[in-house]
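Is this the right way to post structure tokens for a design question? Let me know if I should format differently. Anyway, here goes:
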């Protein structure tokens, strides 16, 4: 998606450890027009997939997730990283190792929001090693929901997540595919 790639070129920072900082339009401040364009693109890519619900993870999945759900006219559910006191015990849990924080956290979704009739579109901001997506797939399996596909705003294709998702037979759409962050530069897949 050219609009997104251009924004990444002009408005991002490469941090040590192959981390891309895009705090000015997605991970801290959010650009709603760009997020709407992201949602429109995901909705177009999955329009024939029979999606009943978007599943994402707080916090940074919410902006692209809700825009995608809006365009598909379905609800969005976001997995929570801490169980709030307002949630009862009926939740699905999964472990997720955080690439950026180097810690394992649990995510949870209240059981009543996922069911076996659901065809889920999993959305996230970044795909690195795939741990967050694997956690959401785990939760979908616990609910016996079908997974129609995975959409990520940015995939760092040089890390293992993209390969894992495709190898396990899930449709994957990434709106920006990064081949490398060598020399503190963003190199997109297919770029010279
Ligand atoms: P994974 O679980 O695929 O290893 O990593 C994905 C999660 O880690 C994303 O949800 C995102 O929050 C965070 N993440 C991974 N790589 C990056 C990165 O380069 N930049 C930012 N901002 N977040 C990242």
């Amino acid at each position: 998606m050219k609009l997104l790639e251009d924004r990444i070129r002009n408005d991002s920072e490469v941090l040590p450890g192959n981390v891309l900082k895009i705090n000015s339009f997605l991970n801290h401040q959010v650009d709603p027009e760009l997020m709407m364009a992201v949602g429109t693109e995901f909705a177009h890519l999955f329009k024939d997939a029979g999606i009943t619900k978007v599943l994402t993870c707080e916090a940074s999945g919410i902006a692209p997730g809700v825009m995608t759900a809006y365009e598909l006219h379905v609800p969005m559910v976001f997995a929570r990283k801490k169980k709030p006191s307002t949630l009862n015990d009926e939740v699905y849990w999964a472990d997720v190792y955080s690439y950026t924080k180097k810690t394992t956290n649990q995510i949870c979704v209240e059981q009543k929001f996922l069911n076996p009739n659901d065809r889920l579109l999993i959305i996230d901001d970044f795909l690195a090693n795939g741990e967050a997506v694997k956690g959401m797939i785990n939760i979908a399996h616990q609910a016996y929901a079908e997974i129609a596909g995975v959409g990520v705003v940015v995939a760092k294709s040089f890390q293992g997540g993209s390969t894992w998702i495709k190898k396990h037979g899930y449709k994957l759409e990434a709106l920006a595919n990064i081949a490398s962050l060598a020399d503190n530069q963003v190199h997109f897949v297919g770029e010279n």
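Format looks fine. Someone answered above. Worth noting: DSSP finds five helices and ten strands in the chain. The chain has one domain: 2-7+14-114+127-180.
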